[in-house]
Amino acid sequence: MKSIEELDLSWNEFIDKLFTLTNLRVLKLEHNQLEGEISEQLSSLTKLRFLDISMNQFSGQVPKVGHLLPDLQILDLSRNNFE
User: Fold this and answer.
1) Can you tell me the mean pLDDT for 29-38?
2) What is the maximum alpha-carbon separation in the chain?
3) Is residue 78 within 8 Å of residue 57, measured between CB atoms?
4) Which residue among 1, 35, 54, 70 is buried most deeply as judged by most CB within 10 Å?
């Protein structure tokens, strides 16, 4: 399972052991009713190129992911509750 490169979990209400999938390049978690601050464990997904966590209920500061995710090309944080 660690060799998964793309995972689309859109329109669900769960997230479990996601950060062990260190080969992920595309992660779509939009519209999942995820809430709270974005986990620092996100930095373990160093191969991510595309991250969409739009339309959730994340809050707090917008995460500074540029130095943590060096391959990231597309990031969608829209429609959340960031400060």
Assistant:
1) 88
2) 35
3) no
4) 54
How does DSSP assign the chain, residue by residue?
-TT--EEE-TT-S---SGGG-TT-SEEE--SS--EESPPGGGGG-TT-SEEE--SSEEEESPP--TTT-TT--EEE--SSEE-
Matching residue, tokens 């500074």: 64
What residue type is 20 in one-letter code? T
Is the pLDDT reported for residue 10 higher than 90? no
What pLDDT, on the 0 to 100 scale, is given for residue 80?
Answer: 95
Q: Other C-beta atoms within 10 Å of 74: how many?
A: 10
Neighbours of 16 (CB within 10 A): 7
pTM for the predicted model, two decimal places: 0.81
The pLDDT of residue 21 is 86
